[in-house]
Amino acid sequence: MANQDSPLNNWVLKPDNLWFRIGSTKNGAYRFDGKYLHYLKFPISPQENTFYKNNPNSSLKPYGLYTIYKDHKGFMWFGTASLGVCRYDGKNLNWHYEEQLQTTPNGGDFGTRAIFEDKNGKFWINNTRFRYVIETYGNKPITFKKENGIGYLNKTNKMEFPFFLSVTEDNKGNLWMATYEDGVYKYNGKELIHYPIKDGETDVLLFTIYKDNKGALWLGTHNAGVYTFNGSSFERQF
Predict the structure, then answer these.
(1) Domain spans of the chain?
(2) For the segment 32-81, what is each residue's pLDDT rounded down to a tens digit?
(3) Measured in Å, how far apart are the chain's first and last C-alpha atoms?
(4) Could you tell me if 121 and 169 are in contact, meaning their C-beta atoms sit under 8 angstroms apart?
(5) Architecture of domain 150-238 in CATH?
(6) 206: closest CA among 189, 220, 188?
C-alpha cells in the first residue's frame, strides 16, 4: 500500500525497512516499512537556486535520485542528478555538494552514481580520484577529509581515474568497480587491476556489480545479460 502524503516526520530509520529508487526524476526516495510504501521528499538543497541560475533552460531534474546506499552505521546516503549527496542519520538530513566532493569530471553532469564505504570506513563516490573520511555528524553540515585515491597510467602515460556506476567489496576486502564501457576494476589496496568484459569482440556495457550471500560477484549489463566471476575472469551466464 502506498502513502503519497509523507511529511518530514515520515523520515524514519529502522534496520528492517527497505529503501527504493523509483524513477530517476523523483525528488526523493521511497521507504517500505513492511506495510506502507512512503514517498519521502528531500529537503531543499542550498544549491537549488544556484543550479537553476546556472541552468535556466535545463530539462534535468536536479533532485533526481540515482543511487541509495546504507553505510556501516546504518545511515542512508542518496546520490542525486546534480545536487550531490543527501545523508540521513535517523534525525538529520544533510547535503554534500558536487564542488566540494569533486566526484564528477564536469561539475555534476553525470550525477552521483555510486557511493561505498570500504572496510576502513573511507567513502568512495563515483570515481577513484579521491576517498573521503567523514569527520562530523549530527545536526550541522557534514565535514570530511579528502584523501588521494588510486589511479592507473593509460597508454599515453597519463594518469586515469575510473568513473564507476557501481561498486562492491568482496570477502577479502577488495573493491570491485563496474564502469559503463570500460569493464571492471579491482582495487586490492595497492593497485587497480582491469578486467575487460567482452561478448565476443564487443565491449559489454555495465550497469551494476553485486556480491551475493555466498560471496560470488555478479554483473548486470546493458547489452549482454548477466556475468559472474569465476576466479580469474567474468563469464556470461544468461
Answers:
(1) 1-124, 150-238
(2) 999 989 999 999 988 888 888 888 887 888 899 999 999 999 999 999 98
(3) 34
(4) no
(5) Beta Barrel (2.40)
(6) 220
